[in-house]
Amino acid sequence: MMDKKNVAVIGGGSGLGQELVLEELNKSNKVTVLSSIDRNEIYHGKASCFVMDLNNLDVNKLDEILKSQKISKIYFCSVIASHKNFKNFTYNEIINQVNFNVTSVVIILNLLVKKYSKIKLVFILSHVCFIFSPGFALYRMYKKAIEDLLLSIEIENPQYLVTRVYPGAIDTNFTKNTNYSGVSIFKKKSPKWWARKIVN
Fold it and tell me: Using CA atoms, how far apart are residues 152 and 126, in angstroms rounded to an integer?
Protein backbone atom coordinates (compact mmCIF):
# COMPACT_ATOMS: atom_id res chain seq x y z
CA MET A 1 0.00 0.00 0.00
CA MET A 2 1.36 3.40 -0.98
CA ASP A 3 2.03 6.04 1.65
CA LYS A 4 -0.63 8.68 2.02
CA LYS A 5 0.32 12.14 0.80
CA ASN A 6 -0.46 15.45 2.45
CA VAL A 7 -1.91 17.61 -0.31
CA ALA A 8 -3.11 21.23 -0.29
CA VAL A 9 -5.48 22.81 -2.79
CA ILE A 10 -5.41 26.60 -3.02
CA GLY A 11 -8.80 27.46 -4.44
CA GLY A 12 -10.40 24.20 -3.34
CA GLY A 13 -13.78 25.73 -2.62
CA SER A 14 -15.51 25.20 -5.95
CA GLY A 15 -15.17 24.19 -9.59
CA LEU A 16 -11.96 22.43 -10.59
CA GLY A 17 -10.42 22.98 -7.16
CA GLN A 18 -13.29 21.16 -5.47
CA GLU A 19 -12.96 18.23 -7.87
CA LEU A 20 -9.20 18.06 -7.23
CA VAL A 21 -9.92 17.80 -3.52
CA LEU A 22 -12.43 14.98 -4.10
CA GLU A 23 -10.03 13.09 -6.40
CA GLU A 24 -7.24 13.29 -3.83
CA LEU A 25 -9.61 12.18 -1.06
CA ASN A 26 -10.62 9.21 -3.25
CA LYS A 27 -6.95 8.21 -3.22
CA SER A 28 -7.07 8.30 0.60
CA ASN A 29 -4.67 11.22 0.75
CA LYS A 30 -4.89 13.85 3.48
CA VAL A 31 -6.18 17.06 1.90
CA THR A 32 -5.98 20.64 3.14
CA VAL A 33 -8.33 23.12 1.49
CA LEU A 34 -7.39 26.79 1.32
CA SER A 35 -10.31 28.91 0.15
CA SER A 36 -11.68 32.41 0.59
CA ILE A 37 -14.76 30.95 2.31
CA ASP A 38 -15.20 28.08 4.75
CA ARG A 39 -15.89 24.83 2.88
CA ASN A 40 -16.15 22.37 5.79
CA GLU A 41 -19.78 21.58 4.93
CA ILE A 42 -19.05 20.28 1.43
CA TYR A 43 -16.27 17.90 2.52
CA HIS A 44 -18.07 16.58 5.63
CA GLY A 45 -14.94 16.69 7.77
CA LYS A 46 -12.88 14.58 5.34
CA ALA A 47 -10.62 17.52 4.45
CA SER A 48 -8.98 20.14 6.66
CA CYS A 49 -10.42 23.50 5.61
CA PHE A 50 -8.84 26.90 6.22
CA VAL A 51 -10.10 30.31 5.17
CA MET A 52 -7.43 32.24 3.27
CA ASP A 53 -8.14 35.63 1.72
CA LEU A 54 -5.80 36.07 -1.23
CA ASN A 55 -6.54 39.80 -1.38
CA ASN A 56 -5.26 40.19 2.18
CA LEU A 57 -2.82 37.30 2.41
CA ASP A 58 -1.56 36.40 5.88
CA VAL A 59 1.82 34.83 5.06
CA ASN A 60 2.49 33.80 8.67
CA LYS A 61 -0.82 31.94 8.82
CA LEU A 62 -0.05 30.17 5.55
CA ASP A 63 3.40 29.26 6.86
CA GLU A 64 1.84 27.74 9.99
CA ILE A 65 -0.67 25.73 7.94
CA LEU A 66 1.97 24.31 5.60
CA LYS A 67 4.13 23.35 8.56
CA SER A 68 1.40 21.87 10.75
CA GLN A 69 -0.23 19.92 7.91
CA LYS A 70 3.15 18.67 6.60
CA ILE A 71 2.18 19.49 3.02
CA SER A 72 4.09 17.66 0.27
CA LYS A 73 2.13 18.88 -2.78
CA ILE A 74 0.17 22.04 -3.57
CA TYR A 75 -2.35 22.57 -6.35
CA PHE A 76 -2.80 26.23 -7.34
CA CYS A 77 -6.15 26.72 -9.04
CA SER A 78 -7.58 29.82 -7.41
CA VAL A 79 -8.55 32.61 -9.78
CA ILE A 80 -11.06 35.43 -10.14
CA ALA A 81 -11.66 36.70 -13.63
CA SER A 82 -14.11 38.57 -15.80
CA HIS A 83 -14.65 37.85 -19.47
CA LYS A 84 -14.88 41.27 -21.09
CA ASN A 85 -12.82 43.59 -23.24
CA PHE A 86 -9.99 45.36 -21.47
CA LYS A 87 -11.45 48.86 -21.97
CA ASN A 88 -14.54 47.85 -19.95
CA PHE A 89 -12.66 47.10 -16.72
CA THR A 90 -12.79 49.63 -13.91
CA TYR A 91 -9.69 50.67 -12.00
CA ASN A 92 -10.91 48.86 -8.87
CA GLU A 93 -11.62 45.65 -10.78
CA ILE A 94 -8.09 45.65 -12.16
CA ILE A 95 -6.49 46.25 -8.75
CA ASN A 96 -8.64 43.56 -7.11
CA GLN A 97 -7.93 40.94 -9.77
CA VAL A 98 -4.20 41.66 -10.04
CA ASN A 99 -3.84 41.41 -6.24
CA PHE A 100 -5.77 38.13 -6.13
CA ASN A 101 -4.36 36.45 -9.22
CA VAL A 102 -0.79 37.72 -9.35
CA THR A 103 0.45 39.51 -6.23
CA SER A 104 -0.76 36.86 -3.78
CA VAL A 105 0.68 34.02 -5.88
CA VAL A 106 4.06 35.78 -6.15
CA ILE A 107 4.13 36.19 -2.35
CA ILE A 108 3.19 32.52 -1.81
CA LEU A 109 5.88 31.38 -4.24
CA ASN A 110 8.44 33.56 -2.45
CA LEU A 111 7.59 31.80 0.84
CA LEU A 112 7.77 28.37 -0.78
CA VAL A 113 11.13 28.97 -2.45
CA LYS A 114 12.58 30.26 0.82
CA LYS A 115 11.25 27.58 3.18
CA TYR A 116 9.51 24.74 1.33
CA SER A 117 11.61 23.78 -1.66
CA LYS A 118 10.62 20.10 -1.33
CA ILE A 119 6.91 20.75 -1.86
CA LYS A 120 5.76 19.69 -5.33
CA LEU A 121 3.77 22.38 -7.13
CA VAL A 122 0.98 21.85 -9.64
CA PHE A 123 -0.14 25.07 -11.30
CA ILE A 124 -3.40 25.19 -13.19
CA LEU A 125 -2.69 27.68 -15.96
CA SER A 126 -4.91 27.84 -19.06
CA HIS A 127 -5.09 27.14 -22.78
CA VAL A 128 -5.54 30.91 -23.21
CA CYS A 129 -1.76 31.11 -22.73
CA PHE A 130 -1.59 29.90 -26.34
CA ILE A 131 -4.38 31.91 -27.92
CA PHE A 132 -5.61 35.47 -28.18
CA SER A 133 -9.36 35.76 -27.74
CA PRO A 134 -11.53 38.84 -27.12
CA GLY A 135 -12.45 39.18 -23.46
CA PHE A 136 -9.43 37.31 -22.11
CA ALA A 137 -6.79 40.07 -22.10
CA LEU A 138 -6.44 40.37 -18.31
CA TYR A 139 -7.05 36.68 -17.59
CA ARG A 140 -4.36 35.71 -20.10
CA MET A 141 -1.96 38.23 -18.56
CA TYR A 142 -2.39 36.67 -15.10
CA LYS A 143 -1.68 33.17 -16.37
CA LYS A 144 1.28 34.20 -18.55
CA ALA A 145 2.85 36.22 -15.73
CA ILE A 146 2.74 33.24 -13.36
CA GLU A 147 3.97 30.90 -16.10
CA ASP A 148 6.97 33.17 -16.68
CA LEU A 149 7.76 33.42 -12.96
CA LEU A 150 7.65 29.62 -12.60
CA LEU A 151 10.19 29.25 -15.42
CA SER A 152 12.51 31.73 -13.70
CA ILE A 153 12.13 29.94 -10.36
CA GLU A 154 13.10 26.64 -11.98
CA ILE A 155 16.20 28.21 -13.54
CA GLU A 156 17.25 29.68 -10.19
CA ASN A 157 16.34 26.51 -8.28
CA PRO A 158 16.97 23.44 -10.47
CA GLN A 159 15.81 21.11 -7.67
CA TYR A 160 12.33 22.62 -7.71
CA LEU A 161 9.63 20.45 -9.25
CA VAL A 162 6.82 22.45 -10.87
CA THR A 163 4.09 20.89 -13.00
CA ARG A 164 2.12 23.22 -15.24
CA VAL A 165 -1.30 22.21 -16.54
CA TYR A 166 -3.01 24.03 -19.43
CA PRO A 167 -6.63 22.85 -19.41
CA GLY A 168 -9.08 23.80 -22.09
CA ALA A 169 -12.41 25.42 -21.27
CA ILE A 170 -13.83 24.00 -18.04
CA ASP A 171 -17.59 23.68 -17.61
CA THR A 172 -17.99 25.99 -14.60
CA ASN A 173 -20.07 29.08 -13.85
CA PHE A 174 -17.35 31.19 -15.49
CA THR A 175 -17.79 29.56 -18.90
CA LYS A 176 -21.56 29.30 -18.48
CA ASN A 177 -21.85 33.02 -17.75
CA THR A 178 -19.68 33.94 -20.74
CA ASN A 179 -21.01 31.36 -23.25
CA TYR A 180 -17.37 30.47 -23.95
CA SER A 181 -17.12 26.88 -25.21
CA GLY A 182 -13.42 26.74 -25.94
CA VAL A 183 -11.58 26.38 -29.22
CA SER A 184 -11.40 23.39 -31.56
CA ILE A 185 -8.37 21.72 -29.96
CA PHE A 186 -9.38 22.61 -26.39
CA LYS A 187 -12.98 21.49 -26.15
CA LYS A 188 -14.93 22.26 -22.98
CA LYS A 189 -14.81 19.46 -20.39
CA SER A 190 -16.25 19.03 -16.90
CA PRO A 191 -14.21 19.91 -13.79
CA LYS A 192 -14.36 16.24 -12.77
CA TRP A 193 -12.86 15.16 -16.12
CA TRP A 194 -9.94 17.58 -15.73
CA ALA A 195 -9.40 16.71 -12.06
CA ARG A 196 -9.00 13.02 -12.89
CA LYS A 197 -6.52 13.81 -15.64
CA ILE A 198 -4.49 16.14 -13.43
CA VAL A 199 -4.39 13.96 -10.32
CA ASN A 200 -3.58 10.79 -12.27
Answer: 19
